[in-house]
Amino acid sequence: MESVEVLVAHIQGLSRSPDEVSHLHSLLKQSEDALRSHASRLAPFLSQLDPSIHTLGYLFLLEAYSSGSISGEEASGFLLTVVEFINSCSAEQIQLAPEKFISVCKSFKDQVMQLGVPMQGIAPLWMAVRKLQTSTEQLTTLHSDYLLLCLLAKCYKAGLSILDDDIFEVDHPRDHFLYCYYGGMINIGLKRFEKALACLHNVVTAPMTTLNAICVEAYKKYILVSLILNGQVPSFPKYTSSAAHRNLKNYTQPYVDLANFYASGKFSELEACIQTNQEKFLSDSNLGLVKQVLSSLYKRNIQRLTQTYLTLSLQDIANVAQLNNPKEAEMHVLQMIQDGEIFATINQKDGMVSFHEDPEQYKSCRMTEHIDFSIQRLMALSKKLSSLDDNLSCDPQYLSKVGKERQKFDFDEFDSVSHKFM
Questions:
Q1: SS (H, E, C) 50-66
Q2: Burial (CB count <10 Å: 0-12, 13-18, 19+), residue 84
Q3: How many CB atoms are closer than 10 A to CB 86?
Q4: Four-residue CA torsion sign, 81, 84, 86, 92
């Protein structure tokens, strides 16, 4: 253990200036194997270091310690150590070894999950995401871990703190798939179905050469959310990968059948389809969402009536929407009015419902502020996309690829022209 003691002394003496830290980084990389061989005995050495000053050295020791087997008795102390480190570490120094920082945070996440206390990991992992990011536009590997803890703890609103960021930089494709998938689930939990649909859409239409399990699970939820929100499932856009376009429906047939029965508008047929595939929906953890689809068919049938009639009796609404009685129809109409899904008034004396146009005139201060905010955000996004386009057009790898394709096209064109004169 003398070598570790010497290394700790180096950490204490070389953690001030950038040049010292750079030299320390080289020493630490050379000592990785030695640290791992003593993983179970590193905990006492961590107490000799200040994570706010000796961040890089502390990180290497903590990562080596976390790579070993942590017993149940040590788990609580390990969690407290990691929380203290994340809260006080220097963001500049962890950027020198981001893979080590990610490894420590993932070990921390695994421990809180094993202990069944995901709530305890939410705040520290949020801080870890922010310290690991070079900007809020960067998607890190820790984003999906943070969202997973929010889901397990059912603390959905905490997930919005990073889901509302505009992401333009992605380290790894798998991070994008998990981030959007978990983001979709969090928005479903909050009943923000438009946001959920956007997240799941990003998974389904993401570039891929082969279909992956995350995409399949996302498409199942994409179908269900589409039915709840819009009453239909849109066709794949042109930019969807051929792998997803060809294979997704084959892996999600019960959900495709559900959408087809939903389109018929017949409650009994939809209910029979759900009953037939209930075990499948349950094993996919989607049965609750499927039941919301079933409930939304009532609303969809009532909404269709607003496009045809100005007034209608509650009895007629109950008949068309396949409800049991006028009282049940009244409850559905009242709920839809409250949720802003239809605009109507009920005359309880004669049991008649009068449907109205949307009263929004788009001239209130609140609406003006909302429109102005949307315009400003679109302008900022447009500017960012133009900048990304400019950077891409100067990228050597992109220019090399385009040059080769252009050269091939020129030769093909030359050959076709030449043959005409031969």
A1: CCCCCHHHHHHHHHHHH
A2: middle
A3: 24
A4: negative
Cβ neighbours for 350, distance < 8 A, ≥ 6 positions apart: none
Tens of pLDDT along 154-192?
A: 999 999 999 999 898 887 889 999 999 999 999 999 999
**Cα 203 from Cα 180, distance rounded (Å):** 6
Determine contact, residues 103/63, Cβ cutoff 8 Å. yes
SS3 94: helix
Contact (Cβ atoms closer than 8 angstroms) between residue 81 and residue 62: yes
Q: For residues 210 and 203, what is the distance between their CA atoms, to the nearest angstrom?
A: 13
24 neighbors 97 (Cβ within 8 angstroms): no
CA neighbor of 267 nearest in space, from 332, 357, 179, 205: 332
* CA dist., res. 234 & res. 242, Å (int): 17
Residues 286, 292, 298, 303, CA torsion sign: negative
| Beta carbons of 206 and 219 less than 8 angstroms apart | no
- Residue among 269, 323, 264, 326 at smallest CA distance from 299: 323
Q: Which two tokens stand for residue 21?
A: 């830290």
In angstroms and rounded to an integer, the radius of gyration of the C-alpha atoms of the chain is 29
- The helix/strand/coil state of 313 is strand
CB 184 within 8 A of CB 221: yes
Intervals of the chain under pLDDT 70: 1-2, 402, 404-422
Q: Express each pLDDT in 205-240 by its tens digit.
A: 999 999 999 999 999 999 999 999 999 999 999 999
What angle separates helix 365-393 from helix 396-420, to the nearest 10 degrees? 70
Per DSSP bridges, beta strands 352-355 and 344-347 are antiparallel
Q: Is 351 left (phi over 0), alpha (psi -120 to 50) or beta?
A: left
Q: Which residue has the tokens 């000592």?
A: 31
Amino acid at 14: L
How many Cβ atoms from other residues are within 10 Å of residue 73's Cβ? 7
Q: How far apart are CA 248 and CA 244, in angstroms?
A: 5
Give the whole-angstrom CA distance, residue 26 versus residue 256: 56
For residue 223, with 0-12 CB atoms within 10 Å meaning exposed, 13-18 middle and 19 or more buried, which class applies? buried
Give the pTM.
0.84
In terms of Cα–Cα distance, which of 68, 145, 141 is closest to 99? 141
DSSP three-state, residue 258? helix
In angstroms, the CA 254 to CA 290 distance is 11
Of 230, 296, 283, give the one whose Cα is nearest residue 254.
283
